Amino acid sequence: MALEKLNHTQIPNQYLDRYMRITTSAANKIFLVICRNTIGWHKESDSISVSQIMKKTGIKSETTVRKGLKELIDLDLIVSTKEHYVNSEGKKIEEMW
Q1: What is the pLDDT of residue 8?
Q2: Are strands 84-87 and 92-94 parallel, antiparallel or unpaired?
Q3: Distance from the CA of 9 to the CA of which of 29, 44, 65, 88 falls in 20 to 30 A?
Q4: Calpha distance 43→46 (Å, rounded)
Q5: What is the pLDDT of residue 36?
Q6: Which residue ranges of the chain lie beneath pLDDT 70?
Q7: What is the predicted pLDDT for the residue at 39?
Q8: Mutual orientation of helices 62-74 and 50-57 as an angle, nearest 10°?
Q9: Which residues lie closer than 8 Å to 72 by C-beta, 6 or more apart?
């Protein structure tokens, strides 16, 4: 079995029901990484660089990551502040680029 041990990260139902089908593959992967690094570790915030997002998602292009982040911002799933992004639950994702 590919998944050896049952563990999980909570993903907001509203994202799964409403947004997952209308966002690009890149934005979906990025959102899942953001959830994993915040909600999944019970954190209010986390520093996630573009290169970390690229590594964790398998996205090869920095431009694609930036477009995916912008897409999530435009949908109000995360918001941009001067020093970090914040997901829809108000959890901070530090901006390192």
Answers
A1: 84
A2: antiparallel
A3: 65
A4: 7
A5: 93
A6: 1, 79-97
A7: 87
A8: 100
A9: 23, 27, 30, 31, 34, 78
Q: What is the pLDDT of residue 33?
A: 95
pLDDT of residue 87: 64
Q: Which helix (H) or strand (E) holds 62?
A: helix 62-74
Closest CA to 65 of 80, 76, 49, 77: 49
Tell me which residue has tokens 């990484």.
33
Adjacent-strand bridge partners of 46: 93
Residue-level pLDDT at 81: 58
| CA separation, residue 12 to residues 3, 45, 46, 50, 64 (Å) | 22, 17, 18, 23, 23
pLDDT at 95: 47
Torsion of CA 60, 96, 29, 51, to 10 degrees: 30
Residue 34 structure tokens: 């953001």
- Cα 27 to Cα 5, 66, 67, 88: the distances in Å are 27, 9, 8, 14
* Residue type (1 letter), 2: A
Please tell me whether residue 34 adopts helix, strand or coil conformation: helix
Please name the amino acid found at residue 75. L
